[in-house]
Every structure is written in C-alpha cells, then in structure tokens.
Structures
1.
Amino acid sequence: MNQMTGIRTLADLKKKQEEVSARMNLRDKAENPASLVQVKVAMATCGIASGAKEVMEYLVEELDKRGIAAVVTQTGCMGYCFAEPTVEITLPEREPVVFGYVNTAKADEIIECYIKDGELVDGIIPQNYDTI
Amino acid sequence: MTDLAMHMMDIVQNAIRAGAETIGITFIERSKKNTLLFRVTDDGSGMNEESLEQLDDPFFTTRTTRRIGLGVPFLKMTCEQTGGSLKVLSAEGRGTTIEAVYRTDHPDCLPLGDIAGYLTLLLKANPAICFRFVYQLDASEFTLDSDVLKAEGIELQQAAMLSLVKQYIREHLHALHKDRSTESYLC
C-alpha cells in the first residue's frame, strides 16, 4: 500500500505520461466516440457505502487491460439504493442497461459476457418500460 | 460511511450536482488544537434559506427518484460524534461551502481512508471541473490542482496514468502524515 514508487514530483508524473502516451500511440487511437462502451457507476451516498469505488477502479483498470475502448464515469443515485453498487452500461447503438449488486466478480462477468459478447447476465434492474 | 474519503466523494458529488465549475477540497489538521477541518467549497447553484434549514433533515432531498437524503446528515453525525461540528454557508447562485470539524483526540474520529483513490476517480470522471485539493498538517502542505495537471499534459483518461497519479498523491500524504502527533486518533 505504501510502497515508494519514486513519483514525488510533477516532473516524475510528466515523464511517466510520456512513456504511457508512447505506448498508447501504438494502439488504434482513431476510435470514433460512438463506438465506445459507456459505463456509469452510481456514486452517491448509497453507492459509496456499498463499495462503488472498488467496482469503478476495477472497471477502469480491467477494461483498459482487456483492450476495450470504453468511457468509465460516475453518476449520482439512480434510485436503486437497495441494489447498490449499480452500474449502467451503454453498448454502442444499444439501450442502456442497469446492473445491480455489482462487486468485482460481477463486474468481471459483465465485461466478459455483456460488454464483449452482448449476452445478458443476472442482476439487471428493469427500468423505463415502454407502454403501448 | 466508514471513512473520511467516502464523505469527501459524497459531499463533492453534491457540488457536482449543483453544477459547480470549480470545487475546492481542503483538509486542515492542527496538532495543538487536536482538530481536523474538512471543507468542500463550490461555485454551483447554492441553496436558498429554506433548503439550508432542512439540510440536516434526512427526509429532505431535492431528488425525485427517492425521498431521503443521507449524505449531509451522515457527515453531521460523524463529526458531532467526535465533539466536532458542521457548518454550511450557502448563497443562491453563488455556491456553497460546507465545513466539518472533527476532534482528532476522540477515539470515534473516522480514519481518513483512501483519499488518493477517491480523488483520482473524481478527477477522471469529471474532466470539465477544476478541482483544487489541499491537505495541511500544521506548517506542511500538499496541494493538487487539476488545472496544473492538465497544463503539465497529464492525461487521466488513460488508465495507466490514473494509478500513477494515485501513487503520487498517496506518497505525498504518507510523507505528511509521518509528522502527525501521537495523540491523534486519525489514521
């Protein structure tokens, strides 16, 4: 937790940034924003108390590691306090889907099944029913 | 809420929802007085007197999705349980300042928690907002300004940078906290 990594100054950070950017350029950067997966982690009182931070950190790191182009951001309470932590995923050209009771294991399942293959997994919170 | 970092995320979330462009997050530890001041200042929409009066009522919220709002009542509870207090200043259209004082010589004082982790997530998730973070312990100080990071070309949208910035903050806070008085329950 407290290991010293030698990043003490802004100049150290800047140097690291150059290394990271150099690696990034090797990847396809010309992705069109509409093709990005949008991930929103609910981060209000209820979400925070249930561990939304660990889920959000996990999603940021794992989506990057697995090479999935995604934007991970935070949102407020969506009114599903009973099911926190909740995560809303919007795949390109699809309706948003909200998953409840997400921990890191569930987040892994969501990445592998839903984000990669579009297969629905347990724990979806039905919302916005369209009536005829 | 089991630590102060959680409160920080929660209260800053209120500032974001108030449409703030600049958010100040300040922690000030005073060894002689045995206090920790936690302050969030924003330039968002502010509150009228009516809302301000109801602020510490858990059954008051501006949301329509649910009828309770526990963020501020929890903050009030955790600072008052140490013998501290909560103060809120707000003017409609000008923004809000919320200040919680904790007694660090009280065993019920919450631990700080993962301030670095929550702060980097806030910076990453809200690139349009300017964050000014200050942590003071007596005469020593650590500051982090999101505008300065941007000017240095630090790109938090890259996951690899996120963990490096987190380490940077963590190391500085760790170095600061070495000077903390042994009477303090803060950890």
Note: The radius of gyration of chain A is 17 Å.
2.
Amino acid sequence: MLRAETEAGWVEGVLEQRLCRVAAPGELWERVQSSAARRPGVRSSAQDAAASWWRTTSAAAAFRGARFLESANAARRSACVTACAAILVVAAVGLFHLKSGSAAQFRSADPGAVRAWVLANTGLDVPLHSGQLVGASVIRGRVRGAEIAYRIGKHDATVTVSHAGSASVARGALVSWVAHGQTYSLACDSPADLRGCLLCHVGS
Amino acid sequence: MVLDANDREVIEACQRGDYDAFRLLFEAHQDRVYSIALRYSGDRAEAMDIAQDTFLKLLSSIRDFRADSSFESWLYRIVVNRCLDHKRRGRRWAPFLEGLLEALSAPAESALSGLIRDEKEQSVQEIVAKLCPEQRIVVVLRYTEELSYEQIAEIVGCSAGTVASRLSRAHKVLERRLSHLRVRGGRDA
C-alpha cells in the first residue's frame, strides 16, 4: 500500500509540474474575432446591439434638427426648415434600413474587432485609429462600402470607405481622399470638429 | 464559483450582444481555455483550434446561460465537449519544430537547456495525449485546473467515484510511460 501511494505521489508530482496552466498566444483573439465576424448567427447578435446605437443616433439627429428649428430666427426659417427636413429624412432612412434589415451593422470600440468585421463583410481592409470609435455598418447596393462611425466630442462623425474607382458612396461628405486603393469620405454633423478628424484620417 | 456583480454585468452585456463585453470575457478566460485544450491535445495548433471553437460556441450560446448557475462550470463543459469532439490531425512534427523555434529565440537561457526543458514538457503532454479521452480529460481538469473530484464529476457528467477510478487507471498507465522522467528519491528530473 505504501509503495502504491509513493508511486501515485510521484506521478502526481510530475503531472502537477508539467501540466500547469499556460498563457494563451496573442493571436488567439485575432482568430476568434475574425471567425466571429464571418458567422451569421454571431453577427446577428452584434447587429441587435448595433441597431439600438443606430436608433439612438438617428433619434438624436432628429432631436437636434427640431431644436435647431425652434431656435432659428424668422428670417432664416425657410432655410432651416429645408435643412431640418433633410436631417429628419436621413434619420427616417436609417430607421427604415434597420427595420428592413438591409444593412449589416456592428458595434464595438475595439479598432481590431471593427477592422476584422469590415474586412470579413466588405473585403475592405481599413486601418483604424483608436479614438471614440462606435462601430461600423455595411453599405449595400450598386457600390459596396463600409461606414465607420465615430463620436467626436458631442458630435457623430462617419468615415465612408469604398474601393477607389467605384462611384462615391458618400453623400454629403465634406472631405474625400484616396489612399491604399480605397476612397475615404469624411462627414460630421459639426464641420468645425472635422479638423480633429483630419489629423488622424487624411493621408493615412 | 458564484459570479460577482462585475462578472454578472459583463455576462449580461455579452448576452445583449455587446462585443466589448465578449472581449472582457475572452481575456478573463483565455488562458484557462487554451491550457485545457493544449494539455488535452498535446499540440499547440490543435489547441488553438479547440480554443477558437470554444469561444465561438460561447459567443453563439451565451444567451442560453442562466445567471443562477456557475459560469465557470458552463464554460468548462463547453471546452470539454470541444476537446472530446475534436478529431486529432496528423501534426507529428509541428510541436517539435515550434518548440525548437521557441527555444532558439529564448534569450534568458541557453537554447539547449530550453530545448531540453520543452522536450520534457512536450514528452509529458504527448504521453498524456495518448490516454483514452475519458481518462485524459479527467487528468487535465485535475492537474491543469486543480479541480476537485466533485467539480470534475459535475463537468464531465459522471459520479465522483467514476472520476477517482479513471484517475487511478490513468496514474497506472502514466507511471509506466513516464518512468524515464523518474530519478531516485521519487523526484522527477
């Protein structure tokens, strides 16, 4: 009995020493996130979260438009009505897309996760800067592209990316440029904040 | 193990589809999942496949997890099932080559001593990997995760007595196969 216990103790000692826990390789996360982005079931759960973000953003845009309309003076009222109507239309279109499920969306502040998701869904490799990244969505239709959403201070900003040479997918973009074979278009609901965006994005 | 408030919040956020919460869960459990997969398979590439499958399964089924049960046990069951389902592939040389490359790139110790150390660890891993799956998973949960017989029984879905029996049989097999590592006095080299 004593001999058997000694034998078992010896083996246990070896196993405890040689089978201890190890650190997972760094590339495991990259593999998981790129596989997750390709799985439709997983994407749909991310879309649910993204949907609430897009609803909030659209509602906020509509609310801002209404506030702007309220504070505008009488002389400029007709111009404001036009501008706010445009904002409300954009918000409505956003909500329509959510309802119809025509656009895949992904919400994350992790540049690596968003980059992998955009690559898996559009074939576009978009180097992303860490900042107030909110998420991304796929633009479908005649021209495929991706829209990267940021929060700049209190304002929403988007970078629209498509393959260079294809028709521009960004309507109302304030700045556009081409880099690495891709067209980038930058838009922000507060043009004054674009200066900060340009420091990171133009020429990258 | 009972979830604390922060863990519960992260899991709930993950259940709502928050990808950043999933990243937090991944970071908290990646070493545990990878280690079980590596010690079970004895192969780094295969362990990566198992770990990847485990986290994808976690992501797709996190909504089914009920907060009143143990998250660790639930995660253990996923990784154990992934291990048992995984078919072994022919990778006889890959582990040796990976070990050689790592040993050669280690600056703190000589390449030779590093290689010998890795070779011993690899040897134990490979011998454990030749046990039958039922014995192997019990050995890994016992020695890599230091779980009790009762915890292992709950995860594997058998009685504590069966766990003890499988471990005992595994010990006997390993005593013979690992005898080259034994030196006088009962200590391993």
Note: Chain B touches chain A through 46 residues (CB under 8 Å).
3.
Amino acid sequence: MFAVYRELEGSTRLAAHVLRRFWVLRFPPVMEELVRQIYFTGASATGTIVVRGAFIGTLIIAYVIEVLEADAALAVKMLLWVVLREIGPLIAAVLVIQRSGTAVATELALMKISGEVDSLRHLRIDPHDHLVVPRVLGIALSLAALTLYVQFIAVGGGMVLSALVIDASFSELAGYFFLLASPLDLAYSIVKSLLFGGAIAVISCYYGLNPPGRSINAVPKAAISAVTQSTIAVMVINVVFAYLVYGVALFGLFTAKV
Amino acid sequence: MTTARAAEAPQLALGYEPPPGGPPGRVWIASGTGHRAVPVNDAFKARLVAALLDLEPQPGAWLAVLGADAGGLGDRERRALRSRIAFLPANGGMISNLNGWENIVLALGYRDAKRVNAALPKVSALIDRLGGSPRALLAKLPEEMTLYEKKLAGYVRILLEAPELVVAENLAGGLEPEDRRRTAAFPAAYHAERPDGVFVQLDDAPDD
C-alpha cells in the first residue's frame, strides 16, 4: 500500500515538474530530445498503426453488419461510437505503451544504473528537464497524432468496406458520418489521447528513473512496472473521461449526438 | 578547530575534512595552486565528491570551496558557487544516446546556446591538442569510444566553460600507457583557458 502511494506521489511530482518546467523547451538540447522522441514514438510507428487501424476498422464493420444486420446508419454510428471515440485512442495508446513506454523505461533505467543521470547532475543539468520534459511532451503529441491516423484509417477503411458489403454507397455512408459526427467527438478523442500520452510517459519515466535496484536485473522489472501501470492508468483515464464527458457531460453542457 | 578552519577557508581552493569516524585524511589545497594530484581511497573519494557536487558537507564534515565555507551557504550562494566548479568523472560522464559533439556541447546548450555553433573550431582544436581525432570523435557514440576518448570528450566539455575549479576523478586510471601519457597534457590545456584556475586530480591511493 505504501509502495502504491509512493509511486503515485512520485508520478504526480514528475507530472507537476513537466507542467512547471515547460519552458525548458527553449534550450536546444531539450528541443533535440523532443524531436527525437516524436520521431521515435510518432513517425516511426505510423506504418504499424496504419495496418492495425485498417484491420480494426474493417473487423468492427464486418461484425456489426453480420451480427446486427445493420443498415448504413447503424454501421456509421458504430464506427463513430466505437472507433472514433474509444478504439482509436486506445489502439494508439496500446501501441505507444508497447513501443515507447517500454523503450523509455528501459533507457532511463539503464541511464540511472550506469550513472548517466548522475552525470547530468554533475553538469548542473536537471535530469528531469533533460530526460522527462521532452519525453512526456513528445509522447503526448505523438499519441494524439497517431490517434488521428488510426481514426482516419479505421473509419475510412470501415466505410469503404461497408460500401462493398451492404446496400449503401460510400457517399451515403460519408453523408451519415458527417451528419452524426460532431467536433466534440474529435476534440474528445484528441484531448483523451494527450492525457493517455502524458500518463504513459510520466509513468514510464518514473519507473525508469526509479529502478528497483542498481543491477541490470532492475531494468526489465522497471519496464514491466511501466507497462502494467501505464495500461491501468489508460483504462482509468478512459473510464473517468467518458463518464465526465458523456455521463454527467460537464453539468449537461455537452451531450453526445446519437 | 572550527574557528581556525573558518579563518583558513578564504585561502583555500578546496578544503575537506570528513566527519569524525569517517575515512581518515583531509584535502587542503590553497588558492592559486595550479595543479594538484591527491591520492585518496574509494571511501574518502566518494564522500568528498558527494560533498563537493552538492556543496553540502555530511554532518560533522567540513568543506571549503573557492574561499567559501560551504557549510554556511544559502541556496542561491550554493548555486552560484557550484557554477564555478566542474567535475570530470573517471568514465568521462558521457550520455549514451548523444554522439561526441552533442555530448561536448550539451552543457553549453543549456547555459550559453548562442556559443554552440561557434564552438566547433575550438572543440576541434582542443581535441587535436589533446591527442584525439576531432572528426572521428565528434561523430562517435559513447559505446564506440575508448575510455580515453570518453575522458577526452568529457574534458573538452569542461574546457568550453573553463570554470575556476576542475576536479578530475582518477584521470589516468584504466588507460593504456600511450593514453596515460596524453592525459599529462590535460592540466596545461585547462590553464591555457583559465590561467588562474585550480586543477585537482583525485587519484587512487597507492594501496588501493
């Protein structure tokens, strides 16, 4: 119980540090780290995510049509509800946890164990500024961009497939889509993705900078903790966010179009 | 004893006494001393380096740096004093995901970013002077460098800022005889940048 409290407190402190020290991006080394992180998390992951997004989108549409004997309107609603609002951000988050969460936790744990974090201190550079701020911002921005990719590919792919197997043209499906979708859906998924990305990065950085020991065995343990806790955090954020936005809907200010 | 030490602090570039019951020995280097090699054992060195880098002596220990008694400093004074000290760890202190050039200008990028682009000729000259190959070293990742190259890159990084006190840990330790000879030029390179600076080598004690 104490360990859970310590980990929560540590992660919260890291998140607060990132929010407080945003301005360190003006330093060239931090900006270079940010660019590296965006390249690794965002750009180099697009190939994988395109394939997964297309598969998921077409799979959902195929099931909905087969099981629910859906018409065009229902197929589009399912795409909107399931893919745009929920599956898109989740697929991107899972991919980022798999690739970047493990990579960040492993890299930072190795840096900690090999004394590189201390080397930064010797240089009078705050390790959190150099290592955590660009990773958190880079992963959050990349996850939001990957979510857009997934949504575009999955929704677009789903509508193309639907047009082939049900009695509706692509333009009809697209018409339904633009009728039913609201800017809130997009804003909702992007804000949620930024939160997912921030949480994954903060948790991965926390476990990487606090490995359970100074031996090389601590590195995989740090990576496992980062993946496990990031996954839990993503699920919790998803539930809380969905409840806040579509449940009580910010005191009734917003309601989902269904 | 305390009064005597306080009176001596202004004359010291580096003074350290471990706490009672700690490892025996003391470091006592007067201001203006150009270059001193101090043989220390591992326990003493660990305490001294920790105290020096945090400018916070362990309870019961005493530390004087560049004429100031570190025990009585406030946060702002401590930060200001810390900016006048550089430490070269035995492994060179490289960051593994940065190449030689990025490692060398890392600290400069935080403190004086405008100088980074103009630093290339000086960095190349310093590497060349200290027996390295600039073109190769600047492009290498730390995992591709020899121990001497890591120490050299770490040292050039310090020379770019040339602070008043440089403390090098076990400078020649673990090096081939040829590379060990090259490190003999390190203090002179520092004094060429900072003639009034103090260069301290913390070498392994002979019985270690």
Note: Chain A touches chain B at residues 27-29, 32, 36, 107, 110-111, 114-116, 118-125 (CB under 8 Å).
